[in-house]
Amino acid sequence: MILRGVDWRVVLGGAALGATVLLLCLALPVEGLPLTYVRLALIALVGATAFVLDEPAAAVVDAVPVPRRRRTAVRLIATLVPLGVWTAAVLGLAVRHPQTPVRGLLVEGAGALAVVLAGAAVLRWTGLREPGEVTATFTGATLLAFLLFDPPPHSVPVFPVHDGWATSTLLWAGLGLTALIVVAVASGDVERPAAEALRRIHIPRRRTSPAPNGVSS
Amino acid sequence: MSAGLLERPAAPAQTLALRSLAALEARRYARSPLFLIGVSLLVWTTTVATGDLAKNAATADPGDLDLLPAFCLGLLGVFVGHQLTRSLDGADEALGATPSDRVRRTAALCLACLVPGVVALVWVGWMSAALAMWRIPLSASISSGARAAMLLSGAVCAVGGPLFGVLVARWTRFPGSALVAVVVLAGWTLLSPRSAAWVAGGSPGWYLAYLVLLCGLAASAALFPGSTGPRRTRVLRVLGSLAVVAVVCLVLAVLPDPARIPL
Lengths: 217, 263
Prior knowledge:
The complex is a heterodimer of chains A (217) and B (263). With 217 residues, chain A is an all-alpha fold. Chain A has helices at 8-27, 35-50, 58-61, 68-75, 80-96, 102-125, 132-149, 165-186, 193-202.
């Protein structure tokens, strides 16, 4: 039931855009590994993942309230779509270009998806029910800046091209693990006594708005 | 003085309304966190790149630095333009009762997109001054006019990005459309050969004109959804004319070297 609350239009649309770019990378004749375009596709997949935790109708998806942690766990299934696209594309690239650093790219993709999930989870924890747009914007812009400018320090390359794959893999693995811990911590239900009290004061004044059903997100 | 004031015709109310709306939107644009991040990033990257120019004078040309405002203000501006346009969507019912219609609000947003353009022009001025002050050796294969056109194309991209964001927000309804637009725009830009070698072979002046016309196309296309009746016909006519002239400019830009097409 909770998976029906996921905005599949956005998740599948973003995944389809990423898959299209990756298919072009696989199909078009290029000399080397088209890493810039591959990473551009990763940004589209990251954007799709950012919307997985959006809960515009959290209060009405289920008749029985479900803890946020469980909702998050179920919603994480939707992340398998962009992750699956990325994995398939990296494996496809490895067949087409034998020099493809498969492990590095797989960890990089998984780490980037975990980081965007963590951003969305933290924003949702602060009370934003639809953190997807903001998270996708900031994460997408940041990754694009790293991709185009390759800022220092170059000893730890975020998106390596020739050298530094081992360091980059370590970086993304660390970021990914930290992000997953953040997702787990930020998915706990938050009691907001002050907010609840405020809502109770405001309820009688809202005569024209529909009555809330009392299920917290 | 008073006679002069009396004889001067009063500005039409619509123009005044557009001017005040545009000023309001420009203030919102200037206060947008992403715009401020973009400006900070531009300052930082310019500082680094200007230092590198003196070192890598043999291999890099200052004209290539047009990428900096194009990304920091243009590509990030897609998000800003999109966000500013979408932020008023929720208030459509309330705004419907006000005298300013959707087309005028869109026009005001398009005018607000000149804010990053002003910052980019300051950047062009700074780059020109830096080149002169520090006497950075310049490639002889690129004329000063061509180099100025290359730098100015970065400023035009700084306006074009936000206009594209407004256009996407007006034409699409799905969440995440800004990121899709940015990915498409970045892919498009990366596909184009934008090296000094191309510009030396092509015509940066016509390419600049082509970019300006693309901005006009984006603004006209953004105005289209809300327009009705004769206004819609006028917008369509402008769109058609701009598209034809843009294609002509692109052809003139690549004519010296047709093998490289910088869409």
